[in-house]
Design a protein that fits this description.
The chain is α/β, with parallel strands linked by helices and 359 residues long. It is 28% helix and 21% strand. Helix 4 links the parallel strand 4 and strand 5.
Length: 359
């Protein structure tokens, strides 16, 4: 039943940020599933409330399986912990404590004080992965950063720095759209914006609460006023971080709807802070070389996905990760929970960097 709660929570992908993904299953005393709920931001009602409404009196004496600790504070809705108590739920099985320090543990405390049995740490690793963006948002006080790079099998991302090069197959292209759907923002450097002239949109076709925000780090103000990004900025939110003093170009871009934030684009902590202020919970970084290297050097990567095409480019073509890099093996990024998946002819390697304490 816990995994069913995860499945219900995942329905909310793209529709809950900056809040968490939550699913709930109510099981009656006889073992029958009598209620299910998924939290969707715009619907306001929480997963527990939806499931309890479905269950009605059949919830009394039953068990609630929830993917995240029921909240115990009054917000847009009344506390779910109290709703569970009032419905006569006798047992709550919950995988994960809420990472928000203002509410963490309070829901469990309320339930126990009212005689409800609380079982925790069930499939907690899977639960943490499901809400990894929300957890980072509260624990690190910044957006979750996922570095995604498309490359040849020898780690090159294009034929040279001035040529837009398509490396991945159509299956990988669809996979990337599904990945974009999970994130609040997509980020590239000014050179990528100039060379590729990309759309940087979510074309997965799936429901999302807010449009994918496009972020460009561009101190040299390379983005063209005639680019797709600039021409569509009034329809799709577009933010350019730059310390450029090119007032004429700033004025032109601003009139087209581009939001210009005048800070040093190399100051990644400040960039992420500005995104946090805008309630952007997660960022998909799609390169290029300099941007990937900058996030690597700053140790601001929470997850990586490398889409590797079965081709070899060689020569002086740019590598996936630039920057200063590791000077010794101890500084190399070690990955854990690594997964490899074949997508069409390509291979996708995904992993999580070890933290300082873990590494």
């Amino acid at each position: 039943m816990t995994r069913r709660a995860f499945e219900l929570a995942a329905i909310g992908v793209g529709q809950v940020s900056p809040n968490p993904l939550v699913g709930c299953v109510i099981v009656a005393e006889n073992g029958e599933i009598v209620g299910e709920g998924t939290y969707i931001f715009d619907d306001v009602i929480h997963a527990e409330a939806i499931a309890l409404e479905q269950a009605g009196e059949r919830a009394r004496g039953g068990t609630a399986y929830v993917s995240l600790e029921p909240h115990d504070h009054q917000g847009k809705t009344s506390p779910c912990s109290i709703a569970l108590i009032n419905a006569g739920i006798k047992r709550v099985v919950c995988s994960l404590e809420d990472p928000n320090p203002l509410v963490s543990g309070l829901g469990f405390k309320r339930l126990r004080e009212n005689g409800v049995e609380v079982v925790t740490d069930i499939l907690s690793h899977e639960a943490a992965k499901l809400n990894e963006k929300f957890i980072c948002w509260h624990q690190e006080k910044r957006p979750f950063v996922h570095l995604k790079m498309a490359m040849s099998i020898d780690g090159r991302i294009s034929l040279n720095e001035s040529v837009s090069t398509v490396l991945s197959g159509k299956e990988s292209a669809q996979k990337v759209q599904e990945l974009r759907h999970e994130y609040d923002a997509i980020l590239v450097g000014g050179n990528t914006a100039k060379v590729d002239n990309p759309n940087l949109t979510d074309r997965s076709g799936k429901k999302r609460r807010r449009k994918l925000v496009r972020v460009i780090l561009d101190n040299r103000m390379q983005i063209s006023a005639d680019s797709v990004l600039a021409e569509t900025a009034k329809e799709t939110p577009t933010i350019v971080f730059s310390n450029s003093n090119d007032q004429k170009k700033i004025e032109i871009l601003s009139k087209k709807g581009v939001e210009i934030v005048l800070i040093d684009a190399r100051n990644l902590p400040e960039v992420l802070e500005q995104l946090r202020i805008r309630e952007i919970q997660s960022v998909l970084v799609e390169g290029g070389t300099a941007i990937g290297g900058a996030f690597f050097d700053a140790k601001l990567i929470d997850k990586v996905s490398f889409f590797m095409a079965p081709i070899i480019i060689g020569g002086k073509a740019p590598n996936a990760i630039g920057g200063n890099g590791a000077r010794e093996m101890a500084e190399a990024m070690k990955l854990q929970n690594v997964e490899m998946q074949q997508v069409g002819d390509d291979f996708v390697v995904t992993g999580y960097p070890f933290s300082k304490d873990e590494g």
